[in-house]
């Protein structure tokens, strides 16, 4: 394997060619979304750790394999993939967020066969048939044209290559997000209502839709396994940490973005009140409902 090449953050900001329909997501993840994740990266790696484990079990990553980590963010799963494939393998972490990729590169262990690239998975040209596995932890629900994005990614996958990713089931089955968000709505206007197929965390809630998208993109042997977990919003650091996390990441963070300090304080008090019954010692676990999706490139 040739040594991976790296781009500076400034190079990435000018080099990426994105689908125009993904412009809103590019702006968000290169702005407030990326900043919030970097701030709490270590904590959210802990919160989402069980999700990564569930995908790894289904993906069956092997030494020497070539893998794409779609929506790799700050690189936590990319580094785990690098450890699994070893020095004879190769991992490409793709993301649209320059600041998150800069953080990922800071964390990259020396000598690990990883490359981070700012790219839009919908349009970025991949070497045909080069990769063994497409992997993603919650990085695929934000495409404006998901069938086109998955078709583009499949071109980089070898015949019989694998796809494995996680996405959320219905919002009503995910109290980890809805409980604090409803508390915030006591003080701030509701976020714009998304349609069932609009890009967002619950865009892949429908099993029928996901099967249709992947089928249209050319995948076969599609399997969708419902998985129920608990997200410890505190990451073992107590109720205060859980409240702070909900105000920095996810829908509640978007709802309070730009609000004055007095309003944010009121939201924090309401969120604390609704999360307190879930507290178990230093942890604050709330239910999370996922799909673990696998498929094959015929």
UniProtKB/TrEMBL annotation:
InterPro entries: Methyltransf_11, SAM-dependent_MTases_sf. Pfam families: Methyltransf_11 (PF08241). Signal peptide: none annotated. The keyword Methyltransferase applies. It comes from Hypericibacter terrae. Residues 68-165 form the Methyltransferase type domain. GO terms for biological process: methylation. One of its GO terms (molecular function) is S-adenosylmethionine-dependent methyltransferase activity. Keywords: Methyltransferase, Transferase. This is Methyltransferase.
């Amino acid at each position: 394997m040739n040594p991976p090449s790296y781009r500076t953050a400034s190079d990435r900001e000018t080099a990426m060619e994105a689908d125009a329909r993904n412009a809103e997501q590019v702006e968000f993840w290169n702005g407030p979304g990326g900043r919030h994740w970097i701030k709490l990266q270590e904590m959210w790696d802990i919160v989402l750790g069980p999700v990564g484990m569930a995908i790894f079990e289904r993906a069956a990553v092997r030494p020497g394999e070539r893998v794409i980590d779609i929506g790799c963010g700050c690189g936590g799963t990319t580094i785990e993939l690098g450890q699994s494939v070893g020095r004879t393998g190769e991992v490409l972490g793709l993301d649209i967020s320059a600041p998150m990729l800069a953080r990922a590169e800071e964390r990259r262990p020396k000598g690990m066969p990883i490359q981070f690239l700012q790219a839009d998975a919908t349009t970025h040209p991949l070497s045909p048939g080069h990769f063994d596995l497409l992997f993603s932890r919650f990085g695929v629900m934000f495409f404006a044209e998901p069938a086109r994005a998955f078709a583009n990614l499949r071109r980089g996958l070898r015949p019989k290559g694998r796809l494995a990713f996680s996405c959320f089931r219905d919002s009503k089955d995910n109290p980890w997000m809805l409980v604090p968000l409803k508390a915030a709505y006591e003080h701030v206007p509701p976020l714009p209502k998304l349609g069932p197929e609009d890009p967002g965390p619950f865009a892949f809630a429908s099993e029928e839709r996901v099967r249709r998208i992947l089928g249209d993109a050319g995948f076969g042997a599609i399997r969708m396994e419902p998985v129920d977990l608990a997200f410890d919003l505190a990451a073992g650091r107590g109720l205060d940490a859980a409240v702070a996390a909900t105000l920095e990441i996810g829908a509640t963070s978007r709802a309070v973005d730009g609000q004055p300090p007095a309003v944010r304080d009121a939201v924090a008090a309401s969120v604390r009140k609704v999360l307190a019954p879930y507290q178990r010692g230093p942890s604050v676990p709330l239910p999370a409902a996922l799909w673990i999706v696998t498929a094959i490139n015929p």
